[in-house]
Amino acid sequence: MPTGSILVADDDAAIRTVLNQALSRVGYDVRVTGNAATLWRWVAQGDGDLVITDVVMPDENAFDLLPRIKKLRPDMPIIVMSAQNTFLTAVKASERGAYEYLPKPFDLNELVTIVGRALAEPKPKASLTVEEEADNIPLVGRSSAMQDIYRMLARLMQTDLTVMISGESGTGKELVARALHDYGKRSKGPFVAINMAAIPRDLIESELFGHEKGAFTGAQTRNTGRFEQAEGGTLFLDEIGDMPMEAQTPLLRVLQQGEYTTVGGRTPIRTNVRIIAATNKDLRLLINQGLFREDLFYRLNVVPIRLPPLRERSEDIPDLVRHFFAQAEKEGLPRKQIEQAALDRLRRHRWPGNVRELENLVRRLAALYPQEVISEGIVEAELSESLPPPAIDSGAQDDSLGGSVERHLTTYFKAFGDRLPPPGLYHRILREIEEPLIGAALAATRGNQIRAAELLGLNRNTLRKKIRDLDIQVIRGGR
Fold this sequence. Notes:
Blueprint: E1 5-9, H1 13-25, E2 29-33, H2 36-44, E3 50-54, H3 62-72, E4 78-82, H4 87-95, E5 100-103, H5 108-120, H6 144-156, E6 163-166, H7 173-182, E7 191-195, H8 204-209, H9 226-229, E8 234-238, H10 245-257, E9 259-260, E10 269-270, E11 274-279, H11 283-288, H12 294-300, E12 303-306, H13 317-330, E13 337-338, H14 340-348, H15 354-368, E14 373-374, H16 376-386, H17 401-414, H18 425-444, H19 449-456, H20 460-470
Parallel strand pairs: 1-2, 1-3, 3-4, 4-5, 6-11, 6-12, 7-8, 8-11, 13-14
Antiparallel strand pairs: 9-10
Helix pairs in contact: 2-3, 4-6, 10-12, 13-15, 14-16, 18-19, 19-20
């Protein structure tokens, strides 16, 4: 049975009672208080083996108390709780020396597990060197999905681990990369971003590694590459899934050996950069298609971070709307408020363009409408305007499924030039078609798997297995 003395500080009596019961039940000696002064007195007296404290206390903010505790008792683990579930809260908790940060509400079993781990290995955490720039924090949202991301980012700040950020277009992948840089130990170095999809294939190596004068036709002077520009800082490789195979090999060599050679150069150059990559594509699928190197994937995917689409964190929309309205006001646009009904309508939208689409809509509302309060009707009109027009059949080309697949395969084979794709093409194509087909059937039946199985002509257990194997998100709802 676990042993140890736990000091709990929270101004909410109900929370104190719940924590006391949960920790006492597994064998810990628990003492609770509703103020920071009592907590500090206990710590100063040498009481307790671990502290659990809320951030906001009636007499003192825990972030002001934590440095004193760590100075007096550097080996004492401190678990911070907070209802202020923002990115900055997670970073500040780590900065002040917290062992762990838990956004409220949290799972009690998770807390008990963290307490056990902290008492088994009571090691002080490395502190962060970040400034309190609350107005400039780019990440907004208090949903559980965003809390998981904040906590992961806080753990990564003092490392140089390579990070792979995946997510749909518009989810904020570059914002996460910038946060890792701006609040990490390389913050004083440069942050250099390069979009792999925007560079011509024959210029990618020159863009990344630079070139020497005369290296190729048109190379009139020596040119520095992005690796050299990012020296001592962070290099962000956006849309890495669009990088052609011929450019992936030299990038892999840099990651393996820590050095590169300019185009036309002969002397290897040592590099000191942190790599953060991002993609909106399924790189494992590209690997199966022979379009992305598996060894490069594992070099880049040291710490994977998946950014959820906006439809998976719709509870963040009110915070995001207020944030974007505040930004628009700082840029000189009129101050706006928004009705609750309008926010509810925004939450029901699917947001195929994710946060970027929402930001554009909010800026449009701020710029184009004279009303101080944005109503549901205005939002409805804007969302209706943003819907794509129905496709017009020009008859110029075959729009059947077979025709679409044929055009796709023609483009696919052209990408390999004189070579053939890797074996297994038949099953890869079937898998690509299967996922959107099942997804469309589930959407049409509002997530009813019995009706979807009947529509597809599949056994219900077979459909469930395919949903699980393909990792298809099932969203249920009535008509």
